[in-house]
Protein 1
Amino acid sequence: MVSRAKIKELMNESACSHNKDKKKGEGCDMPKPGMAAGGCAFDGAQISLFPYADAVHLVHGPQTCLGASWETRETLSSYAGRNHTVMGFTTGITTNDVIFGGDKRLKDSIDYIVAKYAPEAIFVYSTCVTAMVGDDIDMTCKLGSQAHNIPIVPVHAPGFVGGKNLGSRLAGEAVLEHLIGTKEPEFTTPFDINLIGDYNVTGDMWEYLPIFEKIGIRVLSSLSGDGRVGDIRTAHRAKLNVIVCAKSLITLCRKMQENYNIPWVSVSFYGKRDTSFAIMEIVNALGDEALIQKAKEVIAEEEAKLEAKLLPYKKLFAGKKAVLNTGGNKAWSIASGLQDLGIEVVATSVRKSTAEDKEKAREYLGAEGILMMAPASEQSKIIDEKNADILLAGGRSLYTAIKKKISFIDVNQEKKVSYGGYNGLLNLAEDLKYAFANPVFANVSKKAPWEEE
Amino acid sequence: MENIPKIELSKHEHKPLQVNPIKLSQPMGAALAFMGIKNCMPLMHGSQGCASYAKVFYTRHFNEPIPLYNTSVGDITAILDGGDFSILMAIENITKKNTSLKPEIIGLCTTGLTETKGDDVRNVATHIEIPYCYVNTPDYEGGMESGWALTAKALIKQHTKETIELQANKLLLLPHVSIQPIEVEKIKEFCESFGFESYALPDLSTSLDGYLSQNQGKLGTGAIGIEEIRELGTCATVVSIGHSMQIAAKALLEKNPNILHLHFDHLMGQQNNDNFVSVLMKIRQIQPKSFIKRWRGRLQDAMLDSHFLIGSSHFVITGEPDMCVGMCELLQSVGGTIDAVIATTYSTVLERISAQNVFVGDLEDAQIYFENTDLVISNYHAERLLHMQERDTGLILRGFPNYEELGNQLKNDQLYEGSTYFLFEVANKLREVKYHGKHN
């Protein structure tokens, strides 16, 4: 069961930067009726754990929860067995289960899955309805686990407890409680790390993992991009936790520091500077002189290679100005990437950013840069004033770009290629090249014959 | 195919879970229906995730910004609130935050969460000035098709005025959920060519039809508004298309018993369209316009042109019942063999499909039939499954969701015209996989 005490603890995470300035007990905001946008806690929990391809993810709830959400995320996996992340499993409860309880259905579903799909583990997600009617998911999972001799992990993040971020924290709690520390690794190295919070969307991780390998950093386990349940069970033996662009899993890292004495660093792999900086953060934390030296060499080599490839793009983009309107860490991470390509970022949105993200955005954009608090109303004016050439924003802003006759990239759309690591910058550069060259935005801004000039 | 265990058509499930589900939920159908109402604020009463999932789902399917709000029920309101508080707070918060938002009706649908706790959502109307429509759509009952139909019924039941008067040339179409925006427009225009003043409820023809305009995704932009809904009782004729929509037609007849109710399970293929045309001719006492006659001839030509390929082929269809029944009958009218129909939810209309296998299930069930068939008509999720299999089976994407293709809202399978396009699309796909596929 999820308790109020646990939620309170997670919402008041002491290690979280935007809780520092708040009074005791204030913590993160709970959703206000009508004002909450974005996914629920269940959504966040599912996002955090779903990339485990060797596990089956069973959603114990009515139809909406999984029916509308499966096979929507490009979290790639190299798992050689049956990839369960592209499949959807739900108990799809009906009126009967609401009245009489869904425990029997859940048990039968677990038996069915084990018999037919033989996964390494099963994650069972509670949802609003099954949490509300009080199904004893913990017990069903425990009995199932004993009967089938695989981990069956209950994840208690019903939608009504809060937003995506909280759900992600609750998923971290489930992993900590049921998986981490339940198995020993075959061997360890002094440079073993856990990657926390990279879900390998469009293969983001694969852009930087080869660099780790060159340097000699070993990824012991991942939560959860291209991850394996067997590996995360050994995570307590790592020397360092590396959080990638995900504040939500800070609680997990803090607790692992307390329980297993594993320190953590928080990094991002967007753009050249961030990638190099991230690598140095990791090797410095691991604290081995030879490793640090090796990392410096590899970085120098990779950056030189990248610079040569970027040269033609930089020529193309010289003097171009961009306005960026997106949320969270993308407000500065994409800005950083654009700057690496020689594009001036004149404004970015910090409407939904944490204090830390705002600070970072200011640092990247400099004193001249505009941090937009109300981007929807501000961006038009800024495009005019600064003579911007491109708007990078969500689909809703497309009309602004058309009206202003400038280029547009939808940065919130599910992307098909990675913008991560050094090479991701080349993918971003390609997208920008085509966006700048495309006459479509100017063409559709033309008046119809029946409209007055 | 002898070794495949036979699954019977039944209201009861044949296994405890769904693997690779095709069923979509009632509130999702209801939300879509409200988007087909002019200046409607679709409001989902549940935790924030319900609306968020539906919003992302439709955004990707239609490639359009989606107007959908939620009451974000939290743990405290889940226990203490009877519904009024979070709904009223949500309406207040949304309209206060965006003062340019002027909804003319609020369309509220419930979810599994708020039905489980048993919210009484009827009372909200007494606290607000904006017209309000509620529909009970727990997602542990029914599916997308029934959620959509229940919404049409609720709009009529709660807002259409009782009357005994009729306007002879006024006609209301009640299209089922799988009828896409352009198809609504085509059917309306078809009726108008007979001299009808035609309405559709819901009417997506000017909402989610892929039309570039400012201020998208704030409110529903359907072609029918609350004023028109109030006056629907004077329609002399109501045409329900799809079995699921009969409940909405019945609701209208309760407002005015003099209305003539025409029902069609679908408008695909020659037979049903002939019936449709003949009854329109009879009512208006006029000949169809020449374009209609022309399209019938084109359909007949298409049937002959495609009969060889389709007549020698096997099909598996998955989707909402009202969509499946039309496709089956059209394909069978040119000799196609339907191996299996796997429907999202139970509907009595499924009983009339004559095919080897007709049952309610998921893609795990359907996949067994994919190996032995020539063409699958299914949603986006079938694509990966077909990629994985040895046999080169063709796929035509229909139903929700279709994340792969652009322009879903402009696909037309209805009437003589759309049926013609559909047959050609099927035949061309069959030619591709049977004669130019990976094993040729």
Protein 2
Amino acid sequence: MRPRRELLVLLALAVYASPVAWQLLTSITPSEELQNGARIWPSHPTLASYHVVFTQSPLPRALLNSAGIALATTALAMVLGTLGAYALARLAIPGRRALVLGILLSTALPAIATVGPLYLMMRALGLRDTWGAVIIAHTSFALPLMLWLMAGFLRALPRELEEAAFVDGAGRLQALRHVVVPAAAPGVASAAVVTFLFSWNEFLFAYTFTATEASRTAPVALALFPGVFEVPWADIAAAAVLTSAPPLLVVTLLQRALVRGLLAGGVRE
Amino acid sequence: MKVGAERRLAAVLLAPALAVLAGVTLYPLAQALVLSLERRVPVFGIDEFVGLRHYGFLLRDPAFANALHVTAVFTVVSVALEVVLGVAAALALATMRRWRAVAVALLLLPWCLPGVVTARMFEWLYYPTGWLGIPGRALPALIVADVWRTTPFLALFAYARLISIPPGIAEAAAVDGASRLATFRTITLPLLAPVLLTAALFRTLDALRAFDLMYVLTGGGPAATTETLTLYAYRHLFQTLQLGLGAAAAVLVLVVVTLVAWAHLHAVEASEART
């Protein structure tokens, strides 16, 4: 009884996720077959669409832009967020409650509220259509959640850990770098992944602050994917598969990293 | 470490993050407020102070009322469906033993895709039906796409809470002769409620500011039947280029978001006071 029900649940979930598989199949279906109404199973699978996307579309450049922007955003938010979160978690700060409330509230901020003035600001600074504009916007938008998550992870660590380092003569910053952050590694990894996913997937800022191939991210290039006379469904599907590959890869790796982090179990007593 | 030195260190550590938030979040927010009081159309070199005139216009604009309505329908229906489906999926997940990791991976798949990818995927799924071009069909079609991509978030959130409930409680109820449904209603659901409220708040705030899905799938059409507040504000900011009017609409989005967050926090406090 039990195994059968498990399989039913799995089957339901597989059906649920099947549009993703469908997109993969569409991406390897020849365009003529799609025009002729073969919408599900390709009779002559081909990588032609990937060839088109790689040689004749702005997507390769957009993937590079996305990678650069998402990695820079993650790195910046990690550094700024960890330093700030340590202060929030461990040090005496006047007005901490108000500060924490403000940070929590700003995680709910809708991007549309700031995108207009930010656009004017980026233009005035000459940053329009550069990686910098998107990185700055993404970092500021990811920071509140990063501060919130990291402060939680750091607070959960036992104080004895750092105190032992102080006894050994380490300063606060050395203790943070060599003791606290490594001990919080699984938390740090998951906060980093959340930030990376946000930046890679974000559309409103990336779409507004970019104007050409020089800085358009993969989602923006996918949204603007060119079609001259008819919609190139197979090419779009291929571009969509390529655009989703990094987030899928990162989430898969995170699952492993998390398990490994828990097994290694940094802190005892 | 002395208190003075500790405060100095805290200030130094927090300064970079707070500087970024002040410069790239707070300052533009204040600018949006100022901008909303101005009539500013850069292409015609127009830049004048008009006070609250934009807000007056918005409150009388049928297109704004429509956007408010569309946003309310989209948010309420999406989040309600996501909560129901998410709880169902979490319950199913909690009964699994061997294939749990595979099930979680399948759930994570729709959740971690970029919104534009999801939009392009549903565009292809809906293509033969023509729904995205039919008023009355386009909004439900959008809601389905949104529910598809965000139910996993709720499911995993609820699942994490479910597995932390000691199984003994439900077993004791079963021994006392309670039916499965009664056990769920009187024991599991109340224990799940606070988590569901929090998750529903996150989802509501996300639904209120959703942009990518509708921008790519329908662009607000047909006949503005899918034009949400965010799309309305975006249209004026960057398409009709009336920056002041767009900023006023964007400020009203922020007001709606704040009111909803505030109401939710009160609901959470009330539910905590009951238990």
